[in-house]
Amino acid sequence: MSNLSNSWNAFSPDIAEQYLKTYGHPSVSSKALLVDVLKQYTASVAKPSVIDLGCGNAQIGEFFIEKNFDCVYTGVDFSDVLLDVGRRVLPNANFIKDDVNTLGLIQGRYDIALYSHVVELLSSPEESLAAAKRLSDIVVIRFYEPPEFETDTTELKWMDVGNEQQVPFLRRKMSRDYYRMVLAKLDCKQVDIYRDATKDQVHVLLF
């Protein structure tokens, strides 16, 4: 498990800069859908506060600026190398180093708690979602692997971090039953689901 944790601090500086911008599938259409959803649910707030849980290098925060979504952005991650990039590209944003599985260091309340392609990477999604509920009455999840599987599975994947090095990470495929159980335990009042042309989905959990 320590090797898995260390994966997210293993990026070379140039790969950390480009992570999820060119690496893998950027899912531009679902990022645009995400922004539309966030604007819809914060339409009554002049400058909503958004906490991006598992922000990485803050590429979603950059996309917010590109799409004119004016918000008070806070990024949370436990990777120093990715947070360093975020602080450089978004100097006016807030960044906090914390474990997204537990979110034990985060205080305060936010208009939106956001996971963007992150829940699938968590070892403790139930614990993390319970902590996110403490931060906001609206939790938005952008899924790369929507919870539509019959059984839970976890894959060991490999990620190119530069310098001809690959490191392991986990990707979860969540079952419908587990997802429903978690939402029921958290007393989620409503789930609004938005789909784009790819398999990505945006879920809005209302508490």
Automatic annotation (TrEMBL):
**Chain ranges of the Methyltransferase domain:** 50-134
Which residue stretches, if any, does this entry annotate as coiled coil? none
**Which InterPro entries does the UniProt record give?**
Methyltransf_25, SAM-dependent_MTases_sf
UniProt name for this protein: Methyltransferase domain-containing protein
